[in-house]
Amino acid sequence: MLIKYNVLAVIGAGVGLANSMLVWKLFGANINSDIWLLSVAIIAILSLLVLIGIEQFQVFYTEIYLKDEKAASQFLGAAGLWALASGILFSLICYGIVDIIINSFAGGLPIESKKIAIAAFLILLTQVAIAPLVHVTRCTLNVHQYYGASYCLSLILPIWQMIVLTIFIFLKKQDVVELAKWSCAAVLIQILSCPLILIKWANIPKNISVQFFGSFVKNSFTMRIGHSFHNFFVGLILNNALSHQAPGVISIFQYAKKFSDGLAGVAIGPQANIYHVRQAKAWSERNASIFYENIKVYLKNTLPLYVAGVICVWVFLPWLFSLLAKDGDASSTEKIKTVFLALSAWQGIISIETIFAGIVVIARRSMILWLVNGIFIFVFYFSVKAMPLDASVLWISITGLLSQFISFIFYAFLSWILVSKHFIKFK
Known about the structure:
single chain, mainly alpha
C-alpha cells in the first residue's frame, strides 16, 4: 500500500513539474507569469486558511471511529455539511475584500497588472470554496487507510491544469483570465468526486449528529489559527516584497518554490500523511513504543530520499528549462536554480519540524502554535523589512530559512515536554 501511495506521489510531483514547465513555456519569466503565479499562490494560501473551521477533523474522526463507527459516520455527515457551508461563506468574504487582498499581497504591481490579477483571482476563488469539503473527504479516506484514493482526489486539479496549459500553448494564447476560467472547470469534477469516493471507500452517513460538533469546531479554530497565522503572513510578506522588484522576479521565486514543493510532495508528503494518522492513533491509545517507532520510520523514509532529490533537481534544472526555452534566459535559469537550493533547505527544516508540530496538533495545544508561529512571523517580517526593496530574491529566501530554524528549535523543545508528560503520566 505504501509503495502504491509513493508511486502516486511521484505521479503528482511529475504533474506539478509539468505544470511549472508548461507555465514557463507559455509565459517565460515576465509580468504575465508574475500575475498568474501570484494569483495561484494567493489561492493556495487561502485554501489553507479556509480550513480554519475543520482543521481537527482527522483527529476527532479517528478518536470517534476507534470507539463507535456509527457515531463516526454521523459526525462525518455534520462535518461535511459544515465544510461546504464554511467554504462558500469564506469565499464570499474574500470576494467582498478582493481589493484589499490583492493590494496586500501584490502592492508593488502596476495598476493594470493588479486589475488582471483581481479578475483571475475571483475566478480561481471557486477552488477555495470547495477546499474544506475536499479536506474532509481526504481525511476520511486516510483514516480508513485508503491513502491512494485520498491522493488521487488531490490530483484532479493539477492534472486538469496541465491539460489546459497544453491547449493554451498549442493555441498560442497568453490570456491569464481565460486560463483561470478553464482551470476552474476542475472544481466541478472535484465536487462530484467527493460523494462518489465516500460511497465506494467509506461509510456515507444516514444520519447527522452534532454531539461532538461544538468541541470539534472550537478546537479546529484554535488549532488552525496558529497554522493559518503562519501560512498567511509568510505568503503576504514574501509576495509583497517580491512585487516591488522587477517584472519576472515573482516568477523566478515561484518557479523555484514549485520545484521545491513538488520534491517535498514526493519525498515527504505521503510519509507525513501516514505519520500523522498513525501518531493520532498511538497518542489516543497512549502507546509510547509505537509513537517513537513512527518517528524513526518517518525520518528514515523521508530524509535520504529528499536529499537525493534535491541534488538531482539542482543538476537537471538547466537542462529542463533549455528544453522549453521561452523568454527566460540563462540568467533567469541560474537564479531559479540558486533560489531552489535555499527553498529546499527551508523545506527540509519544515519536514523535520513536522514531527514536532504534529505532536502539538494531536495534543491540542493551540497556544503553542500561536506562540511559535508568532515568533517566526515576528523574526521573518522585521528581517525582510530591514532589507532594501531591491534586495536579492535569494537573500529573502535565506531570511525565511533562518527564521524557520528558530521556529524549529521552539517546536522541538515544547513538543517533547508534551510527549514526556503524556506518556510518563500513564505508564
